[in-house]
Specification:
xanthine dehydrogenase activity; about 25% strand; about 25% helix; Aldehyde Oxidoreductase, domain 3; Aldehyde Oxidoreductase, domain 4; 7-stranded mixed beta sheet; binds dioxothiomolybdenum(VI) ion; about 750 residues; alpha+beta
């Protein structure tokens, strides 16, 4: 496909077309759906994290007011596991269907579910169910490195050269362990499921970042053909990865609807959000760096271990970026898993890269200090010419420019390296920085575009908008190709019955969806030109299709403004309501890569430190992002700003704490699990380099959902070191660390 170099809409700051629906409260989120005869489900959660259920007394709950049914292992009916799969299909983190056996493996595991007339009745009854359990000591130990793994030895993830020899021979070395705690996804929209069953077909209103996968998983787990399941997610109040794959509550809602023949709503409580819908796992990482006296890296070794649940293997993949970020002849990345009595971990914004870069970019800062070298210079010095892990070129990498532009915008040249040497208004300043990267990819996508007689267009794709602006960007792509204004384009997504579209994960939607929508728009345009040359009464009747073009919503002779006929007029003459086209784009996964697709960035952070009161604030962040062409700067900037705020949370506040005796997450609410809010938000300066990556797609777009969070936490802890001389390697930074 041709490169799209110029456009009236692509790259133009365009307000979200779904904005008015959201701010007026008319956008329908999953839990907003209501149907006649709707019942409410509330799960019964285990209050131990290791053991077996000896007996469950549901008789009392069954007699409580409004209770319609109490389901558990004996009466929930058939539920199945998903078969093994490869690629982006049939993905579910927790493979065991709820109630499959009597073993409790984590705190909050669902052991029964109550269905009642009102949510209050369901909750009251659920809380009255008494389970007698054989309780065993849970394992939620905090130390991961050095603990027995699920495999005999760690997995080798990437290797080149002789790292051990280079580390031994090195002039300058860093060897340190970095830890991140469990972080819990806390989108404001709770996970929810409204299940409707008509005796044959399930219609599931879900909080899903992947409606097509969700349909396929639910069909397997319910034991019905995929045509008998439809998953709808019109709007999402974000998800951060927690809503990528189905969780047990969705299956429970569907099973209850099946058993009762009535619609059932199940909204996961904030407390349950800490138990049963995933989290970023705790990770320990040992980083060893070796360099020449002049700062050239000679070896990089990263050994990470993350916790996973008792049954499933979730690999955080912390070494994803390490193999290609810097030039080094010797490299080794290993990973391992340790089982804990916790719910299943899952992808959380920038999985792997975000914790991985916290460790690597902290270690790079420590190396710069050991070398007495500027940290920006250290990174510039080790910039690779190609992806050394795969020996292939980068599609489009402008890391050096990220670093130099960021330095300039931040004023890095004014930095004095001595600890605590910079002051402003009586505060000690700390300046730190980090480099970052995130993978770019396309996944298989189909889309349809319809051009209508009323002058509007409709574009449909089975993807979803997590809040990042997918509705708007889809409209922009159609508008670019057809000339129909963005506000006349009806974007239809969030429905598994639409042509299969990409997951809202990996920051891949924009790169994946745009080529399919572009092709669909072009194909619809071609059909329109056919109508123009074939219809009686058309001024273009008898012309050849290649003599015509669709420009600015009009059909005309190529290059001739005069005699242009509006698209709507052509369709009226042809007496058809609409013409349509479909488009497909393929994926970049699977095949051996010829180029290395990634986004890059540089993060600069300023902290202010008041030793007298032990007050630490992140005051300023400058972020420069190389994420290909930015199709819509408004939501793109918004994504990066949101990620920076999340990075402040990661560095300073976020940590899910478990009670070692019960295995319960104890700060399971938004008062005790502290996320960064407006008052914690620094001044944020976002710059996009905006170099199109035409090898990834015709529009040159990569994606911005996750890259903004990568590197931020280390930029902040590096700044904390600069201000205080204290190296925090164990997130989050606690005031106690600094006293
Ligand atoms: Mo993102 S963690 O791939 O939703």
């Amino acid at each position: 496909m041709d490169q799209v170099t110029e456009s009236k809409v692509i790259g133009v700051a365009t307000p979200r077309i779904d904005g008015p629906l959201k701010v007026s409260g008319s956008a329908m989120y999953a839990s907003d759906h209501h149907f006649p005869g709707l019942l409410y489900a509330w799960p019964v959660c285990a209050t131990i994290s290791n053991g077996t259920i000896a007996h469950m007394d549901t008789a009392g709950a069954e007699k409580m007011p409004g209770v319609v049914a109490v389901y558990h292992r004996e009466n929930i009916g058939k539920l199945y596991r998903v078969p093994p799969s490869t690629g982006f299909t049939l993905i579910v983190d927790e493979k065991r269907p709820p109630f499959e056996d009597d073993t409790i493996r984590y705190y909050g595991q669902y052991v029964a579910v109550v269905v009642a007339q009102t949510v209050e009745q369901a909750r009251a009854a659920a809380e009255s169910v008494k389970a007698t359990c054989n309780k065993e000591k849970p394992d939620i130990g905090e130390k991961l490195l050095g603990t027995p793994l699920t495999t005999d030895k760690p997995d080798e993830k990437s290797k080149r050269g002789d790292t051990a020899a280079a580390l031994t021979a090195a002039k300058v070395k860093v060897d340190a362990v970095y830890k991140i705690p469990v972080e819990t996804h806390n989108p404001i929209e709770l996970h929810a499921s409204v299940a409707v069953f008509d005796g044959k077909k399930y219609t599931l209103y879900e909080t899903s970042q992947a409606v097509v996968n969700h349909r396929d998983v639910m069909a397997q787990m319910l034991g019905v053909p995929t045509e008998q399941v439809q998953v709808i997610t019109r709007f999402l109040g974000s998800g951060f990865g927690g809503k990528l794959w189905p969780w047990p509550h969705g299956l429970l809602a569907a099973a209850c609807a099946r058993n009762l023949g009535r619609p059932v709503k199940l909204v996961v409580s904030r407390q349950m959000m800490f138990q049963t819908v995933g989290h970023r796992p705790a990770v320990d990482q040992r980083i060893q760096l070796a360099a020449d006296a002049d700062g050239k890296l000679t070896a990089v070794q990263q050994d990470y271990v993350n916790h996973t649940s008792m049954l499933d293997d979730y690999d955080e993949g912390c070494g994803e970026i390490t193999p290609f970020l810097y030039s080094t002849p010797n490299l080794l990345v290993t990973g391992g898993l340790v089982r804990r009595n916790v719910g299943n971990p899952t992808a959380m914004r920038g999985p792997g890269a975000v914790p991985g870069l916290f460790a690597l970019e902290s270690a790079m800062d420590e190396l710069a200090i050991a070398l007495k070298m500027d940290p920006v210079q250290l990174r510039l010095k080790n910039e690779p010419a190609l992806d050394e892990s795969l020996n292939i070129p980068f599609s489009s990498r402008h890391m050096k420019e990220c670093l130099t532009v960021g330095s300039e915008k931040f004023g890095w040249a004014k930095r004095t390296p001595e600890i605590g040497s910079m002051k402003r208004d009586g505060l000690t300043l700390g300046w730190g920085m980090a480099a970052c990267s995130w993978l770019a990819a396309r996944i298989e996508t189909e889309a349809t575009v319809e051009l209508l007689q009323d002058g509007s267009a409709r574009v449909a794709c089975g993807t979803q908008d997590i809040g990042g602006g997918t509705y708007t960007v889809m409209a922009q792509v159609v508008s670019h190709e057809t000339g129909i204004p963005v506000n006349r384009i009806d974007v239809v997504l969030g429905d598994s019955s639409l042509p299969p579209g990409p997951i809202s994960g990996g920051s891949w939607v924009t790169a994946s969806m745009t080529p399919a929508v572009l092709a669909a728009s072009q194909n619809a345009g071609k059909t329109l030109l056919l109508a123009a040359i074939k219809s009686d009464g058309s001024p273009f009747k008898g012309k050849k299709q290649e003599e015509l073009e669709l420009v600015d919503g009009t059909v005309r002779l190529k290059g001739q403004q005069q005699g242009a006929v509006p698209m709507a007029e052509i369709l009226r003459i042809a007496k058809v309501n609409s013409v349509s086209g479909t488009g497909k784009s393929d994926g970049t996964f699977g095949a051996k890569p010829k180029v290395s697709f990634h986004s890059y960035g540089a993060q600069f952070a300023e902290v202010t430190w008041q030793p007298e009161t032990a007050r630490l604030r992140v005051s300023r962040v400058v972020t420069v992002i190389d994420a290909g062409r930015i199709l819509n700067p408004r939501p793109a900037r918004n994504q990066i700003e949101g990620a920076v705020v999340m990075g402040v949370g990661m560095a300073m506040f976020e940590e899910t704490m478990y009670d070692a005796r019960s295995g319960a997450p104890i700060n399971n609410n938004l008062a005790d699990y502290v996320v960064a809010v407006n008052a914690d938000t620094p001044e944020i300066d976002v710059t996009f380099l905006d170099y199109p990556d035409y090898q990834l797609n015709a529009l040159g777009a990569r994606g911005v959902g996750e890259i903004g969070l990568a590197g931020i936490a280390s930029a902040i802890t590096n700044a904390v070191y600069h201000a205080t001389g204290i190296r925090v390697r164990d997130l989050p930074v606690r005031i106690e660390d600094l006293l």
